[in-house]
C-alpha cells in the first residue's frame, strides 16, 4: 500500500484540528466568525466523508468561501491554478458555477495537465454546472443506490459518476456529499495502487430510477 494521497479540498476553512490536515491556505478574507459558519460546516463534512473511505487521506485546505457558500469565479480559477502547482494528487470541488467560463476552463486544464484528478459535484437535475461540466473532470451526483463505499457509472449529460448522497436528516447531503464519498474511494484506490482499476469496477451502471421496489438501474 502506498502513502495516503494529499487532497486539495477547495471549500470553506478547515479547522486546525481536522484529522489529516497538512496545511491550509485562505484564498479569501474570512469572516471573523468563519469557524462557526456554513462554509466551515460544509468543509468539515466534506473532509469527514472523504475519510469515511480513506481514513489516512491528507488535506491541503484551500479556503474560497469566507463564511457563506459563495465566491467569485476569479477566486475559484486562482485556487485551481494553485492546486495545480501543489503536491496534491486529487483536487476536490463540492460546488458549481452555473455558467461555463474560459477562465475556469483554463484553470481546470492546468490541474489536469499537472497529472492530477479533479472531482466535482454535479446536480442530479437541471443544467450542467462548472467545474463538473469541464472536459476531463470526474463529475459526481448523488445516487441513492450507493452506500458510502460504493459508486456508480452513470454517463449522464451532467455527471459521469454517482455516489452516496447521505441519508435523510444529514446536515449536508446530495451531490456535495456524493462527490466527497467518491473522492474518498478514489484516494483509497490510489493507496492500493489502482485508481484506474477502480474506475473500471462500478457497483452500479446506468442511471438511477426510483420505483416501487426502491432505487435501481434504468
Task: Walk me through the structure.
The protein is of the alpha/beta class and 218 residues long. Helices cover 28% and strands 22% of the residues. The strands form two sheets. It has a nine-stranded mixed β-sheet with strand order 2-3-1-4-5-6-8-7-9, sandwiched between helices. It has a two-stranded antiparallel ribbon with strand order 10-11. Strand 2 (21-26), helix 1 and strand 3 form a beta-alpha-beta unit. Helix 2 (73-85) packs parallel to helix 3 (102-113). It is globular. Residues 212-218 have low confidence and may be disordered.
Q: What's the overall average pLDDT, rounded?
A: 92
Described by the principal axes of the CA atoms, the overall outline is globular
Report how far the terminal alpha carbons are from each other. 36 Å
Strand tally: 11
Low-pLDDT ranges: 212-218
Which radius of gyration do the C-alpha atoms yield? 16 Å
As a percent range, the share of strand residues is 15-25%
Structural class: alpha/beta
**How is the main sheet built?**
9 strands, mixed
The helix/strand order is EEHEHEHEEEEHHEEE
Strand order of the largest sheet: 2-3-1-4-5-6-8-7-9
How many DSSP H or I helices? 5
Relative helix content: 25-40%
Amino acid at each position: 500500500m502506498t502513502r495516503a494521497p494529499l487532497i486539495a479540498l477547495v471549500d470553506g476553512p478547515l479547522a486546525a484540528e481536522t484529522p489529516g490536515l497538512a496545511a491550509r491556505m485562505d484564498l479569501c478574507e474570512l469572516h471573523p466568525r468563519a469557524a462557526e459558519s456554513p462554509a466551515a460546516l460544509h468543509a468539515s463534512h466534506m473532509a469527514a466523508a472523504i475519510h469515511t473511505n480513506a481514513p489516512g487521506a491528507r488535506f491541503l485546505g484551500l479556503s474560497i468561501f469566507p463564511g457563506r457558500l459563495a465566491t467569485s469565479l476569479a477566486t475559484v480559477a486562482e485556487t485551481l491554478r494553485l492546486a495545480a502547482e501543489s503536491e496534491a494528487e486529487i483536487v476536490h470541488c463540492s460546488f458549481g458555477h452555473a455558467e461555463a467560463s474560459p477562465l475556469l476552463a483554463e484553470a481546470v486544464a492546468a490541474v489536469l495537465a499537472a497529472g492530477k484528478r479533479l472531482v466535482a459535484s454535479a446536480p442530479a437535475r437541471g443544467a450542467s454546472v462548472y467545474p463538473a461540466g469541464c472536459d476531463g473532470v470526474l463529475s459526481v451526483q448523488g445516487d441513492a443506490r450507493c452506500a458510502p463505499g460504493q459508486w456508480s457509472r452513470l454517463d449522464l449529460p451532467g455527471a459521469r459518476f454517482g455516489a452516496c448522497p447521505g441519508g435523510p436528516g444529514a446536515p449536508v447531503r446530495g451531490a456535495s456529499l456524493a462527490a466527497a464519498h467518491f473522492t474518498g474511494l478514489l484516494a483509497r484506490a490510489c493507496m492500493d495502487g489502482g485508481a484506474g482499476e477502480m474506475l473500471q469496477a462500478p457497483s452500479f451502471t446506468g442511471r438511477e430510477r426510483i420505483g416501487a421496489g426502491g432505487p435501481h438501474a434504468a
